[in-house]
Design a protein that fits this description.
This protein is of the alpha/beta class. It folds into three domains: 222 residues, 3-Layer(aba) Sandwich (Rossmann fold), CATH 3.40.50; 34 residues, no CATH class; 158 residues, Glucose Oxidase, domain 1, CATH 3.50.30.80. The chain has 20 helices and 16 strands. An eight-stranded mixed β-sheet has the order 9-10-14-13-12-11-15-16. Helix 8 runs antiparallel to helix 11. The radius of gyration is 24 Å and the shape is globular.
Length: 574
């Protein structure tokens, strides 16, 4: 059987005018004649940026990928991809995840490459890169930037984000001075890399291993560890072989792969953001995945990883304890062991080689860190299309709760009133935030873990039930109900909640209900429709996003980006 010609040879292999043009222009980068003799051309999609600590070292890491590509007989060609600095972008990095996915998809499809290495790390960068590559379906492999070193303050470890929320609440409650708060700032981020807690970035890096789209130990090796450079070299080696074997994302990202990702997510106490990212990625490859899968599959896996925000330790400790392969080993037969990975080995073969080196950090099925938690998927008349809650980050006493709503119509209303001593609120109240969903903000920001009112904090209360159509940081904690669908801006029931309404949360029963009769809700809906104002976003990306974005239960992708268009481009450029 004849071997299929490399895709890049359509541009670089022709001895005519078109071939002359393609080769001549790229030779100006310093490539010699002989590299166009049929070697795989490997693209390196690099999200390097000085705006984001997560990825500031990716230029260096790309050099080790290139070394691995050359060694394996490929030709590496690096190209830029949009960087999404989680803590810097306004109004929220999530607004631009789909834009990155679109950019990556079209960059891969339009250029004469045979395979791609995806370099990223920050929260939205990983799913954006994966979504774009999946929609082209050329051989691809992911390399994460790695986590930063453990934070340090006053002789103890502190975690990215998680301790920010704790310290901030302590200042608001009068238990920590502002000077100490500002001193902690300098010790929290001590190196390049993503958050050192099991936030969204490290969650998604762990899930690339569970999905099989990265090499083992991709998640846990610190950003500045020399072994990450070795991993980069091996990733460069491996993408060349994936091209030769024609192993595409669609061969790896199967239903079994997504089931492994959900099981891993539950076992590591992963970020709630992973829910929308996995749903969107599944939509790109045509794998049936529903919100309810996270609850049903997640119940089978107890919490095995003792990391902030659900536990005590940080990503450096996770690395030394064995990382994601050790978690897969401890999941045993629950894990889909026959699932293939880009390493060429099955998940079971990788797990069998792993060990747990610190049982305080990684537990076992017999002695887990905590009970089955994962993500709870709620339904009820307040969230007909679903909402989610992370029980491992919540207060157990609040998982069954009934209280009166304290409503904030949008984020500006929240900021204007939350510190007001006259706010009618107590520890039994339910804080409700509207207008922060995909369309409403726009972009669905991480504001769901609303800071508590000072008048409540000063009584010693540290958690309350909070409900919104927003997301929350993977580093955050609390009894926070998120991703309410449909969102308020789309006309969901959340838009109709008023101050004083009673809300019932039945976490074990997976219910969230507004105790207002249907006739009253119909009256409120009519008033809400009559008072609606046109969007202030009338052009550009934000307009396109608002007009076409899906709701949280579908993954917040754009409607016209779901699925894939293959790697084929039949027309020449000149």
């Amino acid at each position: 059987m004849a071997k299929t010609p490399l895709r890049s040879q359509r541009s670089y292999g022709k001895h005519d005018r078109d071939g002359f043009i393609h080769r001549s222009w790229i030779k100006a980068t310093g490539l010699p004649d002989h590299v166009f003799d049929g070697r795989p051309i490997i693209g390196i999609a690099n999200t390097w940026s000085e705006l984001v600590t997560c990825q500031v070292h990716l230029r260096e890491l790309a050099g080790f990928v290139k070394r691995g590509v050359w060694e394996a007989g490929g030709v590496p060609i690096e190209f830029p991809a949009m960087s999404l600095p989680e803590t810097q972008m306004r109004p929220t990095a999530m607004l631009f995840r789909n834009l990155l996915a679109m950019e990556v998809e079209e960059s891969i499809r339009a250029n004469p490459i045979d395979g791609v290495v995806l370099l990223g790390g920050c929260d939205k960068t990983t799913p954006g890169l994966l979504m774009g590559a999946a929609s082209v379906d050329l051989p691809a492999i992911f390399l994460s930037s790695g986590a930063m070193l453990n934070g340090k303050f006053e002789g103890r470890d502190i975690g990215s984000g998680t301790d920010v929320w704790r310290f901030s609440e302590a200042v608001r409650a009068g238990d920590m001075t502002l000077d100490d708060f500002l001193r902690a700032e300098s010790g929290m981020s001590r190196s390049a890399g993503v958050c050192n807690t099991m936030g969204t970035a490290s969650t998604m890096a762990s899930l690339t291993e569970a999905l099989g789209i990265s090499l083992p130990n991709n998640a846990a090796l610190p950003a500045v560890d020399s072994r990450r450079r070795v991993l980069a070299h091996l990733t460069g080696n491996r993408i060349v072989q994936l091209v030769k074997d024609d192993v595409k994302p669609s061969d790896i990202l199967t239903r079994e792969a997504f089931e492994n990702a959900i099981l891993m997510h539950a076992a590591i106490g992963g970020s709630t953001n992973a829910v929308v990212h996995l749903l969107a990625l599944a939509g790109r490859v045509g794998v049936p995945l529903a919100l309810e899968d996270f609850d049903e599959l997640g119940r089978k896996a107890p919490l095995l990883v003792n990391l902030m925000p659900s536990g005590k330790y940080l990503m450096e400790d996770f690395c030394y304890a064995g990382g994601a392969p050790a978690v897969a080993r401890e999941l045993g037969d629950i894990y889909r062991r026959d699932a293939l990975t880009v390493s060429g080995r099955t998940q079971g073969e990788i797990a069998d080689e792993a060990k747990v080196f610190n049982p305080e950090v990684i537990g076992t099925l017999g002695r887990p860190v905590g009970p089955s938690s994962g993500v709870w998927v709620l339904h009820g008349n307040l969230c007909p299309d679903g909402a989610i809650l992370k029980p491992s980050a919540a207060s157990p006493a609040l998982l069954t709760h009934r209280g009166r709503a304290v409503v904030f119509e949008d984020i500006e209303d929240y900021h204007a009133r939350i510190d007001d001593p006259a706010l009618e609120v107590d520890e039994m109240s339910v804080l409700v935030l509207k207008g922060c969903g995909p369309k409403g903000y726009p972009g669905m920001p991480e504001v769901g873990n609303m800071a508590l009112p000072p008048k409540v904090l000063q009584t010693g209360v540290t958690d309350m039930v909070r409900i919104s159509d927003a997301r929350m940081s993977g580093t955050a904690y609390g009894t926070v109900i998120l991703h309410v669908a449909p969102e308020a801006e789309a006309g969901g029931p959340l838009a109709l909640v008023r101050n004083g309404d009673e809300i019932v949360l039945d976490g074990p029963g997976r219910r969230l209900d507004l105790l207002v009769d249907e006739a009253e809700l119909a009256h409120r809906r009519a008033a809400w429709e009559a008072a609606r104002k046109p969007s202030k976003y009338d052009r550009g990306w934000a307009r396109l996003y608002i007009d076409t974005v899906q709701q949280a239960d579908k993954g917040v992708d754009l409607e016209f980006l779901v699925g894939k268009s293959s790697s084929q481009v039949t027309r020449e450029s000149h």
